[in-house]
Amino acid sequence: MKKELIKSKSNFNNPLKKTPFYEKFSSQMTQGYWYDWSGYKAASIIQDQELEYFAIRSTTSLFDISPLIKYRIKGKDTEKFLNKLTVRNVILQKNNTVQYTLWCNDDGHVLDDGTLFKFSEFDYRLCCQERHLPWLLDTAIGFDIELFEETDLVAGLSIQGPTSASVLNNAGLSIINTLKPFDFVTIKKNILISRTGFTGDLGYEIFLPNQLANNFWDKIWEAGKYLGIKAIGFNALNIARVETGFIVANSDFITAEHAIRNNRTRNPDEIGLSWMVDMSKPFFNGKDAIVKIRKNNLSKYVFAALEIDGKEPADGAIIYHDKKHEVGIITTATWSPTAKKSIALASMKLPYGQKIKSNLWVEIYALRELEYYKMMKKVSIVKTPFVKLKRRTLTPPLKN
Amino acid sequence: MKSYDVIIIGAGHNGMAASIKLAKTGRKVLILESSSEFGGMASSNILLNDNVNQPLPHLINHLCSKSIKDLDLIKYGLKTKNFFIPSISVDKNQNYISFSGSYGSQIDGIDSNEKANWEKLKKRMFFQANLLKKFLYKSPINRENNSLFDKLDFLKTGINLRIKGREEFQEFFRMMLMCVADILEEEINNDLLRGLLAFDATLGINLGPRSPTSYMGLLYRLAGEFNGAQGAQIFPEGGIPKLIETFYKSSTSAGVEFIFKNEAKNLIFENNKVTGIKTQNGEEFFADIVLSSVSPIKTFFDFIGPQRLDTGLLREIKSLRYKGNVSKLNLLLNKIPKSSFLSNEQLSARITYTPSINHVEENFNPSKYQQLPEDPNFELLFPSIIDETNINDNGIIASIIIQNTPYSLKDGWDSSKKLLYSKIMLTLEKIFPDIKKSVLASKLISPLDIETIFNVPGGHWHHSELQIDRMYSLRPVFKYSSYRTPIHGLYICGAGTHPGGGISGKSGINAANQIIKDQKQNNHYYEKRID
Predict the structure, then answer these.
(1) What is the number of alpha carbons within 13 Å of residue A177 lying toward its C-beta?
(2) What is the pLDDT of residue A1?
(3) Which of A174, A195, B44, B140 could make an SS bond with B473 (beta carbons 3.0 to 4.6 A apart)?
(4) Average pLDDT for residues A348-362, to the nearest whole number?
(5) b/e burial code for range B239-253 (CB count within 10 A of at least 16 → b)
(6) Which domain CATH number covers A142?
């Protein structure tokens, strides 16, 4: 007991953990932009944000996704359990596919979103941003399943970009040519390759045992030598994901367990994910609440994708109707190098963003050499994705 | 296919109370009972020998006049002649005080100074209990039941409190969450009197007199009434079995059907709506409304099942404290025992072995560590001495309730029973020197036995702890304090719901009212409801 206490205490003082790919990324790092991703040291920028972004859109990018929280769920009642936990129906999911999903608390407020890898009806992996073990274990009461966290055991590498399929082919992984989006395949040595990603581009994610990480990297790097392969940090990825219209928990909405203030929690309808909720399931966590929310129109917010006049980034800006009334806030904004527009994701107060879509403005404060420039820019509500790429879904994939 | 309007699980007095209310509105009601008797935890199926039995409870103090009227109990045999039972607090050195009337309106064995102290404290306690009384028997106000009319009670209570003056106002909020020991030590000096009040405040819950909020236990008791007599403890004529019989008679006369020895096993539900019950022997009974009067632990875990509960709710139900700590000892004696210091008349009192606050606290301490107390506190009643109609030829019954005997014991109950029995006998012999020789039969029922005999998880007298964090609209949990559940058409009543244990019938009546109200407002009420 005492020993454990000392150990846990020293964990608190320890530096951030290093992922199995840490040496590979840090050896290229020129900027020193690290951040804390779930207790791991993760890169924001490796060398240059713009070049890294263009690796995603023009060649191939490598991004370390090892810090993703991963849970393994196995056993007789796995599907029953997941159908209680998540809002989608996992029985409809095919083996060897990935499903984007989310889960709610009793009040129908979103706890997190994540991806669910189905190996078989008795074996799934759940990947997400936040740690949820207590919630998962309590949800598992009454189900015959085995549930454990494998974050530290499995390394992850995201390979994204138009030449990514060619890189993998060069590395001898031609097996990926038959993968459609959201398919995955497990090859020898327990290496999992899925056609998924957070970029809206052609791309793959690899999950593999930690000890294989170094060799795998070398193999991929070698294969991509003449295909513009580049190690990237989160900032570049973040631009790509906004262009695609993907939301990030605790950035574009506050998860129910993080929210301190009552009105900060969001139900799936309020973050644009109502399509996920399968009301034909007899039961799932939060269903009763969502039924009531929908019946009584209790949703107060709506998710919106915005295009903003001009080129100033509008991060955190307040949205106004008629330049007077506050009607929402921009959660993430960026200049889209591909769409060549200033784009943003926003949370708007109903009926604005749904019934009232015109005469909307954002107030941007641009700080230029210690002086603020205050601008009122017109915004228009558009549909996601801001950037739609045919190569994302093309099967067999585009090769160079 | 057998169809009813309402199926009630469990023929406890609350189940029967609900059935009376519902059947009187013309609804076709069925009560399913797993045992062969009605009465639930107050049924008399604890045999002492082949001919004699004595139920768990022996006194009542929560049957209000409105319930008696609502349930037609007088029409079906509830006698108006009831016995107000005084209390006598004794120690091992033949000291005692006697405490009678409606909670100590007369008191013997203390000097006049102390009497004045007691009067002052009593006045204040009754004032506070009266404020709470408004809330004790009504359905809790919560997110669903919060009309202006409902809220008016809060306003009235606030005004009543305020017009009493600043001192009473402040005292109310100061005392509310205190431990009973501090209040008693502030106000009165007599150890036996303090001991008795400390015992009354903590009997049936897992608190000692020095635990914060234990004063609430005393207020809960004082807020109770029997047919208008507030704070009184009553032995109904004919005893508890007779009282329970009036519930049964009223229920059957209202047209309620009873099926015994057929345990409800599974709920049948479709699309989140209850449609019936499947019993242990495979029979199916159908109804739009099912009312479960069993422990909420059982209702939520066995009938609904953890798979069908939202995880947050599951956590809350899982965290309910439902391990009982009260044991019952029934003795059959061959003659009326002779006390070395109490008169024969005094044997028709409730005799409590409660020497002091510290003694009660010391009793509580080992229970925290799953151990039996060294020198257990208990209350003793001789039902057949109190009420001549209760006498039987087989002997004299002594009904003893023992405090602080936890459900889980380190040494296990099998080996501990004998020890507990001998400890009680040791104390009894100080009061009745010859009692040991006159014991014809004895039965000690531990919380573990209560669990088995009465099908109550944890064997708790209140189904789950009746402390301030689980009272009123927090009972059993906030979201379902309106006697509803997440399954449409499934309702709950019983000790695990407001107002808790004791024979009051109130949770049954409240649940029935809720059902009637829900069905009247809208047949699809649930789909409209917001919570």
Answers:
(1) 12
(2) 45
(3) B140
(4) 93
(5) bbbbbbbbbbbbbbe
(6) 3.30.70.1400
Write the DSSP string, A299-354.
--EEEEEEEESSS---TTPEEEETTTEEEEEEEEEEEETTTTEEEEEEEEETTBTT
Of A98, A119, A149, which closes a domain? A149
Burial of A14 by CB count in 10 Å (0-12 exposed, 13-18 middle, 19+ buried)? exposed
Nearest Cα residue to B460 out of B56, B31, B44? B56
What size, in residues, is chain A? 400
Q: CA-CA distance, B529 to A63, in Å (whole number)? A: 48
Domains of chain B: 2-41+239-319+464-528 (3.50.50.60), 111-220 (no CATH)
The one-letter amino acid at A128: C
Instruction: Share the mean pLDDT of chain B.
Output: 91
Measured between CA atoms, the residue of chain B closest to residue A257 is B312
Best B144, B301, B307 residue to mutate vs chain A (most A CBs within 10 Å)? B307
Question: Do A130 and A185 fall into the same domain?
Answer: no
Specify which residues A208 forms β-bridges with. A155
Q: Are both A133 and A181 inside the same structural domain? A: no
In angstroms, rounded to a whole number, what is the distance separating the alpha carbons of residues B248 and B238? 15
Which residue intervals of B387-495 are DSSP H helices? 413-431, 447-454
Residue ranges, chain B, pLDDT below 70: 1, 46-47, 80, 522-531
Nearest CB partner across the interface for A285, out of B310, B528, B530: B310
Please identify, among A221, A244, A267, the residue that sits at the C-terminal boundary of a domain: A244
Across the interface, do A142 and B307 touch by the CB < 8 Å criterion? yes
Note whether A106 contacts B312, CB cutoff 8 Å. Answer: yes
Q: How many domains does chain A have?
A: 3
Token digits of residue B335:
């003659």
C-alpha–C-alpha distance, residues A92 and A283, integer Å = 15
Mutate to test the interface with A, among B311, B316, B531 (most CBs of A within 10 A): B311
Please write the tens of the pLDDT for every residue from A154-180.
999 999 999 999 999 999 999 999 999
ipTM of the complex: 0.90
**What is the per-residue burial (b if ≥16 Cβ within 10 Å, else e) of B300-322?**
bbbbbebbbbbbbbbbbbeebeb
What pLDDT does residue A341 have?
94
Would residue A260 count as lying in a domain? no
Residues A30, A50, single domain; the answer is yes
Its domain, for residue A209, covers 16-68+152-244
Name the token pair of B340. Answer: 């070395």
